[in-house]
Structure formats: structure tokens, C-alpha cells
Amino acid sequence: MAELVQRYLDQILADHVSSTDGALADYIPELARVDPDGFGLSLSLADGYVYESGDPTIEFTIQSVSKPFTYALALERIGRDAVDAKIGVEPSGEAFNVISVDEATKTPMNPMINAGAIAAVSLIPGATADERFNQIHEFYSACAGRQLAVDDDVYSSEKVTGSRNRAIAYMLQSFGVLDGDPDEILDVYVRQCSIKVTTTDLARMAATLARGGVEAVEERRVASAEVVQRTLSVMVTCGMYDAAGDWVSAVGMPAKSGVGGGIAAVLPGQLGIGVYSPRLDSKGNSVRGVEVCRALSANLGLHFLSVTRESRSTIRHTYDASPGVRVYELHGDLLFTGAEQVLRTLDQECGEFDVAILELSRIDDIDDAARRMLAGMRQSLSAAGKEGFVVDPDDVLRVTQQTYARVFGTLDEALNAARAHRAGSDG
Ligand code: GLN
User: For the chain, what is the mean pLDDT?
Assistant: First the structure.
């Protein structure tokens, strides 16, 4: 059956294989030496299964696809406030290599343009350039699930031609944004951009973000869910530079492109995409990479803002188990809107029962917001002279009995207690 998906991806690639629009990046001379026709696509599902099409073995340099990952690492290492003090999160609407800072704060507009990315490198704690780079290198490797290597030729090539980035680094130093020596920080930045990846690596790195920071091969958490949420947010608004608006409308996935020809795109909770084709448009994004992502999004329905249906009812079934005892069976993921539905229903129906039993054994997941809301359930019911019990065999509520309704391991136990309560013998 997986063949069907494979054929789908092959077809999308075949539809774009003849397009030769765009040009290789040549401001880094080594990048102009790659085969312009190289074309590959990988799609990693959240469980780690990877589909590949075209040539997924081509190695290319990660370039700016590195930026969200170093930003995430900086957030992990020094926390959001310290990072926010040095790097904004506003789309600049400008080219990636623009020499600019926010007028008011004198800090880079966002971490997805070079100024912000160079500042992010300087935030990675380390006494030496090597120490900083090693952390970055290890982090990317952990996200990809394998040890990545550096392309020394591309590194040297960018080192000798990087006047513009040097200008940016020295400007940042003059505004007090850089912690450390600008040349050393630039060296780390250029090394990070020269890390070699395949589309499979990009898909896996993207999937790690899609999974909220847990890499699929080793099943290892490499970043916290909050850090990933922040990182994906700036990828949405700034990841495709001055093409961000068009990208979000047409493709609708947080993404990052690089002048090496790679694009990584993330569908949160679902999958990661890596695509490679080195001919770039005027904004520095891979022409066929963007086309393939557009087609994938449209054909497979991957836009993150497509509303397929309203969230399902959390209450799957309600019945009176005995006179005055009403059971509410809940299912699915219990988040804010589900908990709200439960509380409102109890409110409306509390004239019809003495004891409400919430049956949670079919709940897959529950978040803190829903936990907090259910915490108030017993109190509001007792204000109306009613009682609330919970059947929670897997302990999804993870709470003490005092704060919440009384918790039981089985429905039978809850029913017995409910009947006893109604008979007035419940202490
Ligand atoms: N290393 C490149 C640079 O700084 C990365 C740019 C990019 O991929 N957009 O110019």
C-alpha cells in the first residue's frame, strides 16, 4: 500500500523534473560547481518512516536551513528572554543578506536572516569557536539522527568571499549585539552553513521539529516543546525571507530554505519534508523546491491552516447508569475546547443527576489547560449540591483526589461509590 504514496511522490517530482528556471548561487564560488539538475525529495513521517524520491543521496550544504536549528539551540541553552534581548521575531520583508537591524532596538529583526543567525551563533555558550561549533554540530546531528560532516571546500570558499557577512558581524558588534569576537563568530557561522546534508537528513530534522523536539530514530528529546513552538513560529513568518507571505498562503508549512538548494518544511504533529534542487530564484529559494512543496501541499492537503472539520465532540456517549447517576464517556485528546464542552454540558444538565461520572479511559492525551479546567469541576458541582467522580485507569489527570473529583480505577468502583453516595452512606 505504501507503494501508492511512493508513486504519488515520484509523480510530483516527474511533473517538475524538466523545469530549469533559476540559477545556481555563485556568490559562494564553490556552490556554482554543483550539478544544477540534482533533484531529490524525502518525506519523513512522525514515526520515522521515510519516503524518498529522485536522488536522496546527493549531499549538499545546509546553508540557511541551519538557521532555525541554531536558533532553537540558543533558546535551549540560554532561554527565551536572553535570546529575545538580542534577536527579534519580526519578519523583515528584506533579503536574507541585508545589512540591517531593527531601528528601535538595534538588534536583528529575526533569526532567519543572516544578521539574526550570526547573532544566534554568538549566543551559543562556549569559550572558543570550536566549543561553539561542536555544540551546533552535535545538535544538528541529533536532530538528523546521524553524525553529519562539514564540506571543507564550501567552507573555505565562503570564508574568502564573505565580505557582506563580515560587514553584518561588525555592525552587530558595534551595536553591542555580539557576545564575542566577530571573526570567530563568523567562522562558526560559515562552518555551520557548510554542514553537509541529504534530503533525508533535512526531512528527519524537520520531522524532529514536527514531533515537538523528539528525534524519531533514537526516540530522543533534543529540544523542548516550547523551544520548538517558538522556532516554528519564526519559520512561518520569516523562513522564506521576503517570500514568506506567498509561501504561507500557497504552501502553509513552517519552512526554511538555503542557498545550497535545500528546503526543509514542517507539518507540526505529522511530518517533515526535505527537498533539494540547487537552481534558485531571485530571493535565494530553490525554484523546483518551492514548486514541489506547493504541489505536495495542494495534492496531499498539507496546509497547516486548512480546516478539515471542526474538532470532534469530546463526549462520545452519555447515559444514566442508575437513577441520578449519569456517565459521560469522553474520548480523543482533551484540550481547552474539549474541557470547555464537558464543563458546559455538566452545567446545563446538572439538574438531571445527583452524581456525574466522567469516564476518561478512552482519552488519548490531555493538556495542562484541560487539567486545570477539570480541577474546578467538583467545586462547581458541589456548589449546585451535586457530586462528580472520575474514572481514570491510566491516571491521565495525574492529580490528587482532594483537588479533583474522586478518582476511580474502574467504572464499577465509581458506580458503587455513586450509588452509596446517593443512598447517603458515602462518608
Ligand atoms: N552561508 C550563506 C550566507 O550567509 C547562507 C545564506 C542562505 O542560505 N540564504 O550567505
Answer: 92
Residue closest via CA to ligand 1's atom 6 equals 64
Set 44, 53, 67, 122: catalytic member? 67
Per the annotation, the verdict on 67 as an active-site residue is yes
For the stretch 191-250, pLDDT in tens is 999 999 999 999 999 999 999 999 998 899 999 999 999 999 999 999 887 778 889 999
Per-residue confidence band for 403, with pLDDT thresholds at 50, 70 and 90:
low
Residue 319 annotated among the catalytic residues of the structure:
no
**β-pairing verdict for 50-54 and 40-45:** antiparallel
Kindly report the protein residue whose alpha carbon is nearest to atom 4 of ligand 1. 114
**Which atom of ligand 1 lies nearest, measured to the CA of 260?**
8
**Pocket of ligand 1 from Cβ distances under 6 Å:** 63-64, 96-97, 114, 158, 165, 193, 258-259, 284
Q: Is the pLDDT of residue 188 over 90?
A: yes
Contacts for 187 with CB less than 8 Å, ≥ 6 apart: 129, 159
Residue with cell 547573532: 119
Q: What is the pTM of this model?
A: 0.88
pLDDT of residue 372: 83
Residue 171 has pLDDT above 70, yes or no: yes
**Which residues have C-beta within 8 Å of that of residue 194, sequence separation ≥ 6?**
61, 62, 150, 151, 152, 154, 155, 158
How many other β-carbons are positioned within 10 Å of the β-carbon of residue 166?
13
Query: What's the grid cell of residue 159?
Result: 570564508
Query: By percentage, how much of the chain surpasses pLDDT 70?
Result: 96
Residue of 259, 280, 282 to mutate, ligand 1, most atoms within 8 A of C-beta: 259
